[in-house]
Amino acid sequence: MALNVGIKSAHYEHLLFTTPDVYPTSDRWLSLMANGFRRGEIVLGYCGMERGKGFANYLIRTWRMMHSVDWISSAVCGRPYRGMRQNYGFTKRLYFGANGFSHLNMNIGEDDLFMSRIIAPGNVSVVLSPRATLREKSWGGLRWWIGTQRFFGGAIPFYPLWVKNFIQWELGSRILFWLAAIVGPGGDALGNSRSPQGYCCSRVLRSYSSRRGASAAAWVKRKSADVTSCTTC
């Protein structure tokens, strides 16, 4: 409701939004994002997580970047479906043309669903400059992050069907990737080789572990030729 009042009270046509828990990475953020309105009525930017200590912070920053790549690449390819509430903008004409936010009964996510209604391939400008990015402060560890993702995930059931399918298939492809990495091209999850290539590589690795007295660098260089020849078997 407060956001509706602020938009209606704005004196200018172009509106840029962010949140109080983020900060810009350069003093060019505002000018670069505003310049994006030259190419479209909707401007999308990136907001990463603040760098901190610990492995949990690394996972949080990686997760944010990985999911941002999904919707940014989709927007660049001409199929936009969302933006980040920390770094996006649109015009008042689009806002009043769509009659404003339509999910005011939600605690969070009404801006995301509004963007999915007004966004179209021809009216989106994606600002990819590193100087136009923001950083969000981290207020906890993995438990805080998982709770935050569940909270903001309340808007996903209201997405268009193709968007929900895209999100699910992306998650499924990630799971298949890790399964393929565990099983490997030449064996099963227990490391048992089922192909000539896998057998040759396993034999080379076992021989390597038994030759502790030899020079590792020279031995690997010599045996790499054997592995290459095995792939032609």
Structure summary, number of beta strands = 7
Assign a percent range to the helix content. 40-55%
Principal-axes geometry comes out as globular
Mean pLDDT: 76
Proportion of residues in extended strands = 5-15%
What's the alpha carbon Rg, rounded to whole Å?
25 Å
Class by helix and strand content?
Answer: alpha/beta
Give the biggest sheet. Answer: 4 strands, mixed
Strand order of the largest sheet: 1-5-3-6
SSE series: HEEHEEHEHHEEHHHH
Number of helices: 9
Terminal CA distance: 69 Å
Ranges where pLDDT stays below 50 over 5 or more residues in a row are 195-202, 208-217, 223-233
List keywords for this structure.
single chain, 233 residues, alpha/beta, 4-stranded mixed beta sheet, 3-stranded mixed beta sheet, 10% strand, globular, disordered C terminus
What would you note in describing this structure?
The protein is globular. The protein contains nine helices and seven strands, in the order H-E-E-H-E-E-H-E-H-H-E-E-H-H-H-H. Helix 8 (196-210) runs antiparallel to helix 9. Strands 1-5-3-6 form a four-stranded mixed sheet. A three-stranded mixed sheet has the order 2-7-4. The longest helix is centred in the C-terminal third of the chain and has 23 residues, at 161-183. It has 233 residues and is of the alpha/beta class.
